[in-house]
Structures are given as structure tokens and as C-alpha cells.
Amino acid sequence: MSASILKLHNATIYQESEPILTDVNIDVQKGDFIYLIGKTGSGKSSLMKTLYADLQLKQGEGIIVDYDLRTLKESDIPFLRRKLGIVFQDFKLLPDRNVHKNLLFVLKATGWTNETEMNNRIEDVLNRVGMLQHLNKMPHQISGGEQQRVAIARALLNDPELILADEPTGNLDPQTSVEVMEVLQKINENGRTILMATHDYALLLKYPAKTLKCDEGKVFEVVQKTV
After folding, report:
1. Is 155 exposed, middle or buried (0-12, 13-18, 19+ CB in 10 A)?
2. Rounded distance, CA 225 to CA 146, Å?
3. How much is the pLDDT for 206?
4. Which ranges carry the ABC transporter domain (predicted)?
5. Which of 47, 85, 213, 217 could be a cystine partner for 160, CB 3.0 to 4.6 Å?
6. What is the tally of structural domains in the chain?
7. Is 148 helix (H, G, I), strand (E, B) or coil?
């Protein structure tokens, strides 16, 4: 049985009606940590959005956590996203509720009903990212780096097979970026698969891993020292 969690074969990635990446071939194996780099406008975000079905895959083949992106029905998208952990650049925490209630909202929205199980799960994921002590704080009461840790905890709630991190350190200063990367590295060491889009080359040097680059309409693997 293949250990592929994500496989794209001869895929074309569109930005609105225009193809931005062509002949894309990617194979992400269980336990991988892979960077996705490229200049602004090179197709990184469009590729990520295609993977979590915000954009449709119109050409080529794409399988992600056992879902076929070409034949994916609208009604299947919530189920696909439950098997993915998605971390955004701008955290996307709900500003009108505390950390606990932000995570509770996600669990209820994805079908959890037992209050004890939900509370235990929330405490578990917050503990993993070092944020348990901020359980009752509102998003505006914690720093950007702490908000991103909460966002990572939120991504872990449903025990995802793959985490898609789209510029997770993009709004953070260098020291905070390193702290967030340490959290992601630890999650990866525990067996979680991570695909991370980034433009922060300092992190690539500090935490080397397989790197894919979007450039001139193609995606290809690059050797670290030539990034």
C-alpha cells in the first residue's frame, strides 16, 4: 500500500481562469516535511488553495488524503478538510471569543458532541503547542506568535493526516518565526506530514528539508544551497 498522502500528476493549477502552474508532479509521503517556495505571484497560494479545494483542479490528476480532487463533490469538501490541518498567515481566529471557544467552535462544526471529550481534546492540542495557560484569553490579549500557535493547535484538533501551512510565519518577526517553526518541527517529528509554503529563506537554512519551488509556471525540487 502506498504511503503517499498527496500526489499530483501532470496537474495544471489555475488562478481564476488563467493557468499559473502546468505539468505539476508532486508526491508527498507520510511523515514528510516539505517546503514550497517561490516569489509572490508564482502560484504558491493557488497551489495550496487547490489542495484544500478552495480552487478546483481542472486538469491532471490529484489525490490528497484519499480524496480525488478532480471528482470531488461540493458536499465532500468539509470531509476532506477534516483530514487536513490548515494554517494561514493571518491566524483567522474569531475575535469575539476566547482561545477555548475558538477551538470549541471548530470541534462542534466538525461533528463533535461530547463536552468532556471536546474539552480534553482542546487541552491536549493547546498543551502540545505550549498555549494551555492562555485557554481563557481573547485573541487580542495574546501576541501574534501566540495566536499562530493557537492556529496550529486548531489545525491539530481532528488529528489531520496532512497539515498545509500557507506562510505561517509571514506576519511574524524572525525570533517568533523560529518559535513557531520549533512547534511545527516537533509536530512533524511526532509523525505528522507538513507541506509549508514560505518566503522566509532563513528558516530553510536553519531547518533544512525537501524544497519545491514554483517558478516560471513550473514546480521543481531544488537543492538547499541553490535556493
Report:
1. buried
2. 31
3. 94
4. 6-227
5. 85
6. 1
7. helix
pTM of the model: 0.92
132 is a domain residue: yes
CA dihedral 15, 17, 22, 23 (to 10 degrees): 120
Asked if residue 66 is part of any domain, the answer here is yes
Residue 133 has pLDDT above 70, yes or no: yes
For residue 170, is it within any domain? yes
Average pLDDT, the chain: 93
> For cell 471536546, what's the residue?
118
Mean per-residue pLDDT, 111-136: 96
Helices vs strands, H then E, count in the chain: 7, 10
Secondary element (H or E) of residue 27: strand 18-29
The dihedrals phi and psi of 71, each to the nearest 5 degrees, come to -105, 10
Give the CATH number, domain containing residue 18.
3.40.50.300
Q: Is residue 186 part of a domain?
A: yes
Nearby residues of 224 by Cβ (< 8 Å), 6 or more positions away: 204, 205, 208, 211
Task: Return the residue matching grid coordinates 471529550.
Answer: 117
Cell numbers placing 118: 471536546
- Report the DSSP beta bridge partners of residue 37: 213
Q: Which domain does 88 fall in, by range?
A: 4-222
Residue 12 near residue 24 (C-beta atoms within 8 A): yes
| Residue 193 host element (H or E) | strand 193-197
